Structures are given as C-alpha cells and as structure tokens.
Amino acid sequence: MSDTANPDEVFSVSRLNAAARELLEGGFPLIWVEGEISNFSRPSSGHIYFTLKDGAAQVRAAMFRNRNLLLRFKPESGLQVLLRARVTLYEARGDYQLIVEHMEEAGEGALRRAFETLRLKLAAEGLFDVARKRTLPAYPACIGIVTSPTGAALRDVVSVLRRRFPAMSVLIYPVMVQGDQAAPGIVAALDQANRDARCDVILLTRGGGSLEDLWAFNEESVARAIGHSDIPVVSAVGHETDFTIADFAADVRAPTPSAAAELISPDRSDLLRHVQRDGMRMTRALNARLDQFRQEVNWLRIRLWQRHPLSRLQQLQQRLDELESRLQQTQRARHQRLAQRTEILHARLNAMAPNNRLPLLIMRLSQATRGLHSVTSRQIEKAQGRLQSIVRTLETVSPLATLGRGYAILFDEQGRVISRSEQAPVASTVKARLAHGRLYCQVLTSEPES
C-alpha cells in the first residue's frame, strides 16, 4: 500500500461533515427521545436551543420558531420532556444534534402515546366508522345522563333541558368520572341504561380537566361499551378542545355539556312556533277544503238543474226557436240569391238576342274592313319602298353599268372570265361581252404585265 494520498480520496472538513449529516439523516427516521432540558436559551430569533440529557449522556437540540409556537407549555431547564425529532449534524461546528418537531411534558406524553395507540387500534377495528353512527331522535321523550351527581356538568345540562323542554323526562345514572373506579362504573351505567330501555338517548358527560383527569373516558372498556349500546350515545367530555376515545366511539360528540343538552333536546319555543305554524296551515287547508266542497255542491246543483225535465224542455224549446229563426233566414237569403241570379240571366239573354247583336256585328265588320285596307296599303307601300332601294343598290354594283361606259368582259373558250394575259394564248378565241351584244375575237399576240 502506498503512503502517498490520492487527491480524489482526500476529504475536506466541509465535505466530511456534509457526508456525515447525510448518513445521520438517512439512517434515522423521526424518533421519540425522552430526557431533561438543560442549558436552555431563546435568542431574539425566537428559536430555542438546549441540551437534552439523562444520567449518562447528553445531546444538543434545536427547535425552530415555527414549531415552538405550537407548544402548550413553557419549556425551561430542569424540565423532563418527550421529543419527536430528526437526527442531524450541524456542519459548521461538526456537532451531532436533534431538530425537534414536537415537544411535550414527559408524564403527559406517556398518556398521549397510550391514547394514540388505543385510538388507532379501535379505528382499525371499525369502532369509529361513520357508517355505524346513528341519527339522534328529533323529539326524545326521555334522556339518560351518565355523569357525576355532584358535578357542574349535570347542573348545566339539567338547566338547559328545563329551559328548552321541561316536559322531557331525565334519568340520572350516577358514576364516578375520575379515578381508577370511574371506567368500570361508566361501563356498568351504560349497560344498566340499555337494560332499562327507558331512554331514547344517553348523554355521557363531565366537566373539563387535564388529560389524566379525563383518562377514564379514554379506557378501551368504555369505548366498547359505547359501541355496543343499543341506544344512541352523545359524548360531551371536558372543554371544546378536549378529545377522548369516548368522543370517537359515540354516535355524536358535543364540545361541552351545555352544547350537548342543546343538541339532544328540542326547543320549546321552536316547537310552539311549529305548532302555531302547523295550526295555521291546517286552518288554511280546512278552509280551502271547505271552499272546494262548496264549489262541488254548487257544481252538482247546476248539473242537477241541467238534468231536470223542465230545464231540458226549456233548452229544446229554445233550440227549436233558434232553428226556426235560422230556417227563415236561410229561406230569405235563398230567395234573394235566386232573384239576383234571374236578373243576371235576363240581362245576359237580352245581350245575346239577335236583333240586339246584329248592329254591333255590322259595326265590328266595318271596323275590321277599314283596318284591313289600311294595313294592306301600308304593307304595299313599305314593300315598294324596299324594292326601289334594292334596285338602286343593284344598279350601283351591277357590271352592266360599267359596260355602258364602253368597257367589255372577256371570257375564254370555257366561259371563264379572263383577267390575265396568260389565260388567253396566241391564236385562241375569246368572247367579249359588251353593253349591247357580244364579240368573238382571236388573240394575235399577248404581253404580260411588266
């Protein structure tokens, strides 16, 4: 092995720390760590820095401002805490440290872990499914209350029920709501209420307190007793921000005992308004029905009168009078039409009589004769004019006019017009056409055109 270092294998301090950070962050998921806070500090940035230690070791930790704003307690040195954190390395100093995502006091943290474990277990079994939740009755006749008989929660619930609906029956199943005996007592009370079968709704309630004070309502036995209840269960445990396993198992969760009483009881004032409104609706419906009956009676009375023999006779008499009137009107109209037709035919007959038509025909014949003479004369005059024009045109283009000025037209022996000297060889005979008569000549000599 060579003692000379390969430059590619030499780490700078920055590269080494970066590689170590990647190994730490990749090798550890989010983990829970419990220990005591020491060297606590909070600079002006709002971030907090401290050392987490136990009896044998310590590690640096940091919790940034956006996470520590969610804390429900004030951390300080000497406080035992439970952290959920990421393992990393601060490269600038090479310090191994924890980046804290969540922090809680150690005692309460154990309870919260137990709470979360039980919640996930029961949720996986389907105990919290929405499909098994039942709708509360709109007008329960009796309410069973499982709570401490001396607690403020019971007084609040009873006060609201008396105000809203004093006619409702209330059965109280007294139990302890805190301590080791609370959970078995709550389970027994729920079972007793179901055996009695006198209640329409069961209200499980108590006032506020710490997580430890409310722990009886986070017991698995209580959750299963709620799930097995045949009567709908409303849970109202602690304040609005407190959640228990009983809240998830119940059919309905109310934020406070008073809110639960409001939820399960009808409002007397609303019921009175509904009764008054329904009474008015019934009155209007009855009046409308009576009006309908009156209209039906009147209609039946009219139909009865229409079917009465006297009414039918009167209708037939009226119909007969109407038909008689229509017949008379039809006869008069027909007589008028026949009279008008007779006058028209008489006028046409007079117009067609021979003694009346003969003068008209003679006059029309005379007019036609005069028209024919006039048209014939005009046609003859137009024809004569066209003929004279044609004659003048022929005289203008006729070769006879040229011959009259002393010219002649020569023809060869075949009768073809001669226009060149080559067409009449020497000693041949040619015919000359004059204005008056013809000459037959013999060619003595010819001279072509120069």
TrEMBL record:
<dbReference type="Pfam" id="PF13742">
    <property type="entry name" value="tRNA_anti_2"/>
</dbReference>
<dbReference type="GO" id="GO:0009318">
    <property type="term" value="C:exodeoxyribonuclease VII complex"/>
</dbReference>
<comment type="function">
    <text>Bidirectionally degrades single-stranded DNA into large acid-insoluble oligonucleotides, which are then degraded further into small acid-soluble oligonucleotides.</text>
</comment>
<dbReference type="GO" id="GO:0008855">
    <property type="term" value="F:exodeoxyribonuclease VII activity"/>
</dbReference>
<keyword id="KW-0963">Cytoplasm</keyword>
<dbReference type="InterPro" id="IPR020579">
    <property type="entry name" value="Exonuc_VII_lsu_C"/>
</dbReference>
<feature type="coiled-coil region">
    <location>
        <begin position="313"/>
        <end position="340"/>
    </location>
</feature>
<dbReference type="GO" id="GO:0005737">
    <property type="term" value="C:cytoplasm"/>
</dbReference>
<dbReference type="GO" id="GO:0003676">
    <property type="term" value="F:nucleic acid binding"/>
</dbReference>
<feature type="domain" description="Exonuclease VII large subunit C-terminal">
    <location>
        <begin position="127"/>
        <end position="441"/>
    </location>
</feature>
<dbReference type="InterPro" id="IPR003753">
    <property type="entry name" value="Exonuc_VII_L"/>
</dbReference>
<keyword id="KW-0269">Exonuclease</keyword>
<feature type="domain" description="OB-fold nucleic acid binding">
    <location>
        <begin position="11"/>
        <end position="104"/>
    </location>
</feature>
<comment type="similarity">
    <text>Belongs to the XseA family.</text>
</comment>
<protein>
    <recommendedName>
        <fullName>Exodeoxyribonuclease 7 large subunit</fullName>
        <ecNumber>3.1.11.6</ecNumber>
    </recommendedName>
</protein>
<comment type="subunit">
    <text>Heterooligomer composed of large and small subunits.</text>
</comment>
<dbReference type="Pfam" id="PF02601">
    <property type="entry name" value="Exonuc_VII_L"/>
</dbReference>
<keyword id="KW-0378">Hydrolase</keyword>
<keyword id="KW-0540">Nuclease</keyword>
<keyword id="KW-0175">Coiled coil</keyword>
<dbReference type="GO" id="GO:0006308">
    <property type="term" value="P:DNA catabolic process"/>
</dbReference>
<dbReference type="InterPro" id="IPR025824">
    <property type="entry name" value="OB-fold_nuc-bd_dom"/>
</dbReference>
